[in-house]
Design a protein that fits this description.
70 residues, mainly alpha, 4 helices, 83% helix
Length: 70
């Protein structure tokens, strides 16, 4: 939907601009709208990794792999 695209664009822009917490929040919104978008988990994992939260990063990367493999 257009809301998903809006949040995804916001997330990627904020990752690029190093606003990692804002990006993570935007990706939370994407996932709440559609929890089967593997790339949302992947980019949220990137965001968590960049803020040093490796546990959450790993969970998100695993979710991305699980969803993409289905």
């Amino acid at each position: 939907t257009s809301a998903i695209q809006l949040h995804l664009n916001d997330a990627l822009t904020n990752l690029y601009d190093k606003n990692f917490h804002v990006a993570i929040g935007a990706l939370d919104s994407v996932i709440s709208l559609d929890n089967q978008l593997w790339f949302a988990y992947y980019y949220r994992g990137v965001g968590y990794k960049l803020v040093g939260n490796f546990e959450e990063a790993g969970k998100n990367f695993k979710d991305a792999i699980r969803i993409k493999s289905d």
